[in-house]
Amino acid sequence: MIWPSPLAGEGGAHAPDEGLHWRKSFALSAPHPPLRSAMVPPLPQGERVGFVGEDMLVHVATIIGAHGIKGEVKVRSFTAVPKDFASYGPLTSQNGHVFEIKKIRPQTDDFICMLMNVADRNAAEALRGTELFVAREKLPPLKEGEFYLSDLQGKICFADGKALGPVAGFQNFGAGELMELASGLLIPVSCIASVGEQVILNLPDGFLNEE
Prior knowledge:
This protein is mostly beta strands.
C-alpha cells in the first residue's frame, strides 16, 4: 500500500492501454475518493510494493478465492480501471511464482480468471490470498503531478506543520483507500494535499482529536 492490501498465500495480466496506470498514481488538486486528493485521476486501491530478485514490484490484484470446479479463481483488482490488472503480462507472487491469465471475465466488482496450470478447484483454492504483482518497469510513465502510492512508503506525513510519522502501508476495508502510518493511524488518501519529500495532509477539523 503498496501497498500498496495485506499478504497471504502466494501470488500472481497484457499490453497496457492509456488510463490503466496501476494508478496508485494520481494528480493532486481536488478531493476525491481515497487514493488521490486534488484533481486526481482514478486510482487503484491498496497498492503494495515488494521485490523479487532485483525487480521492484507493485501490487495490482489479489486472488480472493476459487470459483467453480474447473480451477478458476476470483480476483480483486486494485488498478484504476479494474480490468487493467490483466494488461501487463504475466503477474508474479511475492514468493516469485509466475501466473499467466488465460481467460478473464467480470463478476460484479471482481473478476473470474482462468490461470495457466491451475486445473481444478483444489489448486485454485490453494491460491486464496495470493497477492499479484507487476514489475514497476512495465507500468506506463507517470504524467506530471502523478505518483504511485508505493512512492509514499516511508515518507513522513505532516498536518498543520505537525509530523505524524512515516507511511507504513495502505488499507481498504470497503469504504475507501486508507493510508496507514507507522503509529497505526489510518488517514483517507483523499486527505493528501501534496507529495514531495514529505506528504502534506489536509485533515478535517477535529480529525486528530477523534483519534
